[in-house]
Amino acid sequence: MIFEKACNVTMDQVIAALKRKDAEERIPVLRLELDYELATLYDALQANDYAQICKSKELLKKLGREMLLLEA
After folding, report:
1. CA–CA dist 51, 72 (Å, integer)
2. What is the pTM of this model?
3. 53 and 41 in contact (C-beta within 8 Å)?
4. Which residue in 41, 16, 39 sits closest to 26, CA to CA?
5. Mutual orientation of helices 11-19 and 50-71 as an angle, nearest 10°?
6. Measured between alpha carbons, how far is 17 from 69 in angstroms, rounded to an integer?
7. Which of 4, 25, 44, 59 could bond to 52 as cystine, CB 3.0-4.6 Å?
8. Is 56 exposed, middle or buried (0-12, 13-18, 19+ CB in 10 A)?
9. SS3 letters for the chain?
10. Is 49 helix (H, G, I), strand (E, B) or coil?
11. Angstrom distance (rounded) from CA 16 to CA 55
12. In Å, what is the CA distance from 12 to each residue of 9, 16, 47, 70?
């Protein structure tokens, strides 16, 4: 049985992503941003810094949505 996660991407966001000509250039940068934010989240978890944990999780959600749009 396969479970799929709901995707909250609108058609307008997909169209905007397709119109971007710099998508190929943005993907490697986005991967670096994701890696950096994951490292920041790990450090915050180790330090029990709840404010930073929340900020990192929100930014990771945003970056993840952008990655989905660019790789679609």
Report:
1. 32
2. 0.68
3. yes
4. 16
5. 70
6. 6
7. 44
8. buried
9. CCCCCCCCCCHHHHHHHHHCCCHHHHHHHHHHHHHHHHHHHHHHHHHCCHHHHHHHHHHHHHHHHHHHHHHC
10. coil
11. 26
12. 8, 6, 39, 13
The tokens of 61 are what?
A: 């959600």
How is residue 70 written in tokens? 């660019």
Residue type, 65: R
Tokens describing residue 26: 């943005």
Tokens 């993907």: give the residue. Answer: 27
| pLDDT digits 0-9 by tens, 35-72 | 999 999 999 999 999 999 999 999 999 999 988 888 76
